[in-house]
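Justification of computing resources. Each target in the renewal requires a structure prediction run like the one illustrated here; the chain below, 198 residues long, is used simply to show the kind of job we budget for.
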Amino acid sequence: MKFCSSCGSPVVLRIPDDGDHLPRHVCTVCHAIHYINPKIIVGVIPEAPDGRVLMCRRNIEPRFGTWTFPAGFMEMGETTAQGAAREGLEESRAVIEVLDLFSVITVTYVSQVFMVHRGRLPEGASFGPTPESSEVMLMRQEEIPWAEIAFPTIYQSLKFFFSDRTKGVRDFHALDLTRRPSRAQHADIQSWLTGLQD
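Resulting structure tokens:
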């Protein structure tokens, strides 16, 4: 940040005089303090009546061509469930019934908090490609291309989801990811996540 969004004057990065403990962008003229906080990502794992889940192949960067469930940045004025439903429409053209929140993953290396809901895809629901997704399809657990999952958050949320379903429970999960995977580690996200949790 170079200029104040309140008055347009230059800002400096310093610890404010109000008892704060972190450097902030402070306006040199009006003295407004500008806080930059983590972004919230909302997502939903839509489950069809036959147990398959709706997956989307990314048609945008980052991670173009890899697979995800509907997820994206939360907008102002919406709940996490509303945001997840909107992402479902935007990425798959599906009207998804968004259910309970079951996974919160903090990703410190990109300053994001990832909040994932369970979801229900009604019988006979329509879905299809969008500008954000080149392919949209229902997949059984064994059909998911685990080596082509877009992000560790998507991978781990799917693992939580299928583990709960196998056990017949509806648990809540929390995870902190504090180290960015390398390009090589993206090819083996499972071993990378296992190493973080040891």
